[in-house]
Design a protein that fits this description.
single chain, elongated, 21% helix, 15 strands, alpha+beta
């Protein structure tokens, strides 16, 4: 039985020991797009294909992030949602590697998520039989829906309630929705926009000018609201864009996009009607219609699943 270093033991080392084309078959009750992306990046091997069936009914809050993942890794990721409306939910956690000649297989208590494999949560995994796991996986395929063929029943915006109508004061923040949502100002306490931080983080010599992060104010930096520093999560937007993000910087004062620190800056400049690399002025925010943004926790960080958040920058 394995307890320590499960990420490397189950998800990294078997791939290194196998040569040629390598397939990983997973049936997991819960999963997350951000963890899948991290796993593919850490493996860094075009010969690997991750095949997963997600077995438990959930909000599917990071569905957009999965679609982006499929676009980025079309030959390396095959994902399915179990059709739990017409079949039992499945809470298994099984992993089977093979290159057609050799195999490594495990089962136990760890969902395919960062919460299970990389936090302080204790899980156990044991060696299992490859053919049993693959047979189980294949038995569920005709009861599953390919992720790219899934149609959400309702947009994620309907999960949010009680959005405050007015902008928060400069340098301020406000929690609402039972503490699951926060509205946070882009402006400093003096009413001005930062010149070389926040949306203008890249506006200095030697930096890519689009680099940006979302500022976090005091209580919104808490690990009780956003994940701890360095923990990856999906951030989906009110206009159907997805980012892979982390809380970063000293004291966790900002939200960064993990793939490229310029992605959030490019996104906000486009929404504000600015050109690539333009300095963002306070007037740009005022003319757009708001000087703050809202971030909502739409899927809880739990022992089973990783958190997903929604970014709202809409105007009425």
């Amino acid at each position: 039985m394995f307890i320590d270093d499960l990420y490397n033991t189950v998800l990294i080392n078997p791939a290194k020991k196998l040569s040629g084309i390598k397939n990983l078959y997973i049936v997991s009750g819960y999963s997350s797009a951000s963890f899948t992306r991290r796993h593919l990046e850490d493996l860094d091997d075009e010969n690997i294909s991750i095949n997963i069936i997600i077995g438990m009914n959930s909000k599917k809050a990071d569905h957009l992030a999965y679609l982006d993942l499929i676009k980025k890794y079309p030959s390396q990721f095959n994902g399915y949602y179990l059709d739990t409306k017409n079949y039992h939910q499945v809470h298994s956690k099984v992993y089977a590697w093979s290159n057609g000649r050799n195999d490594f297989s495990f089962s136990g208590s760890a969902n395919y998520s960062e919460s299970a494999f990389m936090k302080t949560q204790i899980n156990q995994m044991s060696i299992d039989k490859y053919t049993d796991i693959v047979d189980f996986y294949e038995s569920l395929l005709d009861k599953s829906i390919k992720i790219e063929d899934y149609t959400p029943a309702e947009p994620i915006s309907t999960l949010i309630e009680g959005l405050p109508a007015n902008d928060v004061p400069p340098g301020g923040w406000e929690f609402f929705n039972n503490g699951n949502s926060a509205k946070i100002s882009f402006l400093q306490k003096n009413g001005e926009i930062p010149k070389i931080s926040g949306l203008n983080w890249g506006q200095r010599d030697g930096r890519e000018p689009n680099q940006a992060y979302l500022p976090l104010r005091k209580d919104t930096r808490s690990d009780n609201f956003l994940p701890q520093i360095g923990f990856r999560f999906s951030l989906v937007t009110d206009d159907q864009v997805s980012f892979d993000c982390v809380k970063a910087q000293g004291g966790g004062k900002g939200i960064h996009s993990t793939d490229n620190n310029s992605l959030l800056g490019i996104y906000f400049r486009k929404r504000l009607g600015l050109g690539s690399g333009d300095f963002v002025k306070k007037e740009d925010l005022v003319n757009y219609g708001r000087t703050d943004y809202t971030i909502h926790k739409i899927q809880e960080d739990s022992n089973d699943s990783d958190p997903t958040f929604m970014l709202d920058f809409s105007v009425s």
